[in-house]
């Protein structure tokens, strides 16, 4: 499989998209979101997962892996432009035996988060795994050029939504259930052109640690995954053609990662395999961050 990842990485040419968080079906080559070598073993049988940004990228890959492990999965996507991606993800979840639900909404609004959780409960009757994964980023070289509107949009999408959705979900969660947040390598290494985005990812890391301690007595575990440079729609929707082409080349592994390479980390954190872990972050970044 590693050879396949390397081959796809070399096939990526300079390309851009005009709207965040991006459309997966417009990417060339298509990201690897379904690892055919990954076989489920019932680790999430009887569970219901809610995955934000589940229509594409890492969210899609995690949703597929959850379905392979026996879970029913609800995904949240932002707008009508992403609907074809969402419909494809729904078909993939169902292909592997899971029941699926797609919810179109803007999670930067707290009422929308409440309504999304209510839809999941109405459809499935329970919620056991919450994956806070949706995000946006806006490269800005000049720190002084970061506008209040950009700052508000980045924080509202990336971190406020995690507060809103976690608050909406918790009354329906019980001992043994899990929350998984998507952080980023930028929370640890920083990024000179993604200062607001990196700040939200740092906040997500601290949110994960603090919420884990807060919920420990309830038996609800909270962990995070910090991806490095992964081939998702957010990349061509963020960077210019040259940066897209070189994306991931500076990692110790020497290439960008694929969404499917992140999915097992989400399964691990969602299942009882990680029963002695909370407040932790798994780094899936090609060796980009090596620290304590």
TrEMBL record:
Supply the InterPro entries for this chain: NAD(P)-bd_dom_sf, Sc_DH/Rdtase_CS, SDR_fam
Q: Does the keyword Nucleus apply?
A: no
Q: Where is the composition biased (Basic and acidic residues)?
A: 1-13
The UniProt annotation puts the region (Disordered) at: 1-31
Q: Which SUPFAM superfamilies match?
A: NAD(P)-binding Rossmann-fold domains
UniProt superkingdom = Bacteria
Enumerate the UniProt keywords alphabetically.
Oxidoreductase
Q: Name one GO molecular function term.
A: oxidoreductase activity, acting on CH-OH group of donors
Please cite one Gene Ontology biological process associated with this protein: bile acid metabolic process
Pfam families with a match to the protein in the record: adh_short_C2 (PF13561)
What does the similarity note say?
Belongs to the short-chain dehydrogenases/reductases (SDR) family.
Sorted alphabetically, which NCBIfam families does this protein's record hold? Answer: PRK06701.1, PRK07231.1
Would you tell me the protein name for this molecule? NAD(P)-dependent dehydrogenase, short-chain alcohol dehydrogenase family
